[in-house]
Design goal:
185 residues, alpha+beta, Arc Repressor Mutant, subunit A, elongated
Amino acid sequence: MTSRLSINIRETVRDSGECEFRIRNNRAVISPEYVRHLITVRKLIPPTDDNLNLDAWPWPVKIRTLGGFTIERDGVPLSFTGKVQRQPLALLKLVIAYGGRDVSEARLIDTLWPETEGDAARVNLRSSVHRLRKLIGADALRNEDGRLSLDPARCWVDAWALSVTEHLGCTRARIGLLQRLLSRG
């Protein structure tokens, strides 16, 4: 009976909206951990309805910038056993500071390596991009037409979640979200 129930559940949970609904509402039919597992295995992308509870989604990359800077990859906090990757992390912070989407390489170069000549600065950027992709995953950072973007379907950034509440004018929700985000630091 249990295995048949599992098969039926697997067949009914097909899209990200259903998975997000089950996680948020903690449905007794299926455990939130199992839903997270299904999302991960099926590589489902999160719903795009500006939902404020998407911090519960099993994001491949979670970046916290409020109350300290931390990165999780597949639910595991990044830790460095040797030398800290300063340039890739500085690049990531700058991409986030500039909005996380369509940040021009020229702007990044001008900010990170203002004294470095053109070709050397581009080599520095390419090296930092390569190293950053190793840290957070190659598909989490896109480079298209000389512009860097974090993939919003693969990366969750706490500042973005706060920005969504601001955009929607949800003062009470924004305060609650900010308190939750800062309490995790």
